[in-house]
């Protein structure tokens, strides 16, 4: 048996003299308690002996107003009892003469709990706390239960018994000069790893022994115990302080389980309720005023009872089905409302998109800037010309018709001239933008993508040189600069071109000196515009020279090395010029180079005046959609704009395969079988909404009828016959034939038609 933590521990002297095992029982009998009460106590301890090693544990609690209130001592009380009891038991032969004293310091209302011997006097307590509070002992006054205590009275005379508890109050008689201040809390005591114990080896010989504290690696279980009713001391059962020995590892995996398992079973039971009745008899009268007369009703047979329950079930089902039908109708009505709202919103969105597209197209015709804008403008001119010719042919004849056609021709010539003037203005603006874009591209740093996806940029000496030249070109191209800033820019340009001595740099320096001289003479700026344009032109030529700007060599259309001119150079039969291959637009079935892009564009403006913007947008959407699949699709990037135009016009008839919608701005090309790569023989022309619904299908045979599937397959065969003439497309076709897509031939093997989409 070992003691509970609330018991005062054994004295250090007893630890030195007696080595008691913790497994021994420690208990107090009634005879030992009576002997402790009648024991002749030794004289009081000296102050130094008691004060040595004593620690005070104080707990303060503040109320809502910030005032201190009395609180019972918490866990530090155990440490105080342990430390003070060690000092007290160092003098006494045993631990039976110690009691807990609660001192309440006023007016701060601070509770201090300490262990003192029961024969200590009140004067000793005043001396101890005077030394702790650093005030004279005469100023302190001790009070017990509202009565002042003399200094000669002991704790035992106040009624304290061993291991008992007493609460006294202590306050200062002179609060102004000697106020009682709160005692600060002591830090928590931590047991050291090694302690030194004095052991008596002989009658007058002692030896110091170093004892290592072995801290438990596990928490000991509570094994029960008992409590002394006389003293209130609790004793707990405990095992040995040794770590259980581990079983040796035999290399065999062993599983342990509890055999005495409890199987619980839950079952509801209804206990009997015994009742009794009291009847009238001889010597007992029971009133019958509250009794009720019960008459038997009509007898129900089992069949009638079940029929009654069946009818009740039918009634319940009727009401439930009515409630369920109301819920279903409400749900359908709500879905219909949401569907109608969505359709209205979609129609409104499409209407707005179409209006926005027409507005942008009108603005592009009104203020043309790009090649596509002028294509739309010429296409509109051609539509107007055809309408006018048809109107003239239907309304006029003879000489009047010829005169109207001549007037129409003159008006068409005027409109073409007006378009030409707009083109010149647009070319001038675009030329400046193209020059700046070209120079920006030369000044860009080198970029590459690392393994982790981060982009790394690096500037070389050539890119830095190109960036400096770009800044100078922007400065000299700026207008409305003050004279001083313009002279600074010219001076910077002069020092830059002087780094290389050549005919071009000499011409630039000469023009710079001329402009500076004219500016000093006060010539107006509009008279210097021609000179400044010449300076910009010559400096641009200077920038495009690889000797002065090495970075520009990789961007020039005409390479510096004459031997490279023989590579990828073709002859245009229209303009009779030798041009690089990028200047030629070739379809997938072309067998010769033909004319360059500029000649084809000029021929289109003069004759057919077609607009290819719709097909370009369709091809761009197709390639973007194929990139999103992330399956290395290549066929969509081999198809050119002319090939897509042939497919849309000749094979699919410029309309959706499902709804026959003929607005090309709303049509897209998507995969017929989404599990295979896009190709001219694996595609279908649909509207955007139809394409979204088509790509969500998991089985084409269940969504479309066999007639519709055969119709699409026929168009695929036409595309195969057309594109099989192209060598590159033929290789893709053979590859697709060798590796058939999933569900490729399931339509032909299907025996029953599916539902329509």
UniProtKB/TrEMBL annotation:
Signal peptide: none annotated. Residues 745-757 have a biased composition (Polar residues). GO terms for biological process: cilium assembly; flagellated sperm motility. Keywords: Coiled coil. Residues 99-168 form the Ubiquitin-like domain. Residues 337-365 form a coiled coil. It holds the Pfam family IQUB. Residues 1-39, 738-757 are annotated as: Disordered. GO terms for cellular component: acrosomal vesicle; motile cilium. PANTHER family: IQ AND UBIQUITIN-LIKE DOMAIN-CONTAINING PROTEIN. This is IQ motif and ubiquitin domain containing. It comes from Sphenodon punctatus (Tuatara). The gene is IQUB.
